[in-house]
Amino acid sequence: MQSDDKPDNGQTNPSFFDLLNQTPPAPDTDLDKDPGTARFAELRAGWNASWEQGGFLHQRWEDLRQAPRAGWHSMANWVKATIGLAAVCAVIILLDGAAEALADALHRLLTAVPHVQVGADTSTGVFAVIDQPIRSYIAAHSASLAISASTVYTLWQIIGLFALVGGFARSSGARLTWTAWGAATIAMVYSSAPADGRTIATALAVLAWTTASTLALRGTTLRPHVFTHIHNAGHHIAPQIHLPAPTAPPADEAPDNVHPLQKR
Known about the structure:
Elements: H1 16-21, H2 28-33, H3 35-50, H4 56-74, H5 77-111, H6 126-141, H7 149-168, H8 172-192, H9 198-216
Helix pairs in contact: 6-7, 6-8, 7-8, 7-9, 8-9
């Protein structure tokens, strides 16, 4: 016997007791011979009956088969509940793994960063011309801070990367950050670069920053936007003509050549 409990949308709520109710009773003769065999035969008969037309398992299979065509609003409630429960479990597992990975990444980012040194660097190239003055400036001006110079250098890199990506995504706040970050970077290079090569190092820093700005500030123009709004406040002319009502002339001024029609 199927459960007749129905929700508001008219769908039948399946119950596991429907499967037990479909199990036919075993004959008394079989119980007298071998109760275990009779009980197994009873369960097998119930299993077969549940897969027949209108059976419990047959209806559940039909709900699953029709779910893709029915859509979310028309599929069976127990299918939606199963999908929702599986989705919640998957989100919990992903959030747990993402939280551990993010915490580990932040820990390594703030602790296992390259050491910032003051003085000459063995690295060469255009990047070293710009990067070494920045390292020297940060190391020389962060001795009294509560964080290490390596952490300050790492945060400087993260902020620059965030401003570059956010500016490419046309974020106004990220573009303001990119502008301030570039000005601070050029100032650090100018302040800490060697005196004999300060002009070249600063020029390279400016060129590198302006080149990267083609991505961070794409679509930005210095031309002011002129909004033209024309409003005609003239008089409105309505196409209406008012004619005075005709008035009859006085009796003494009526023409004598006008005579009323007479039926003959």
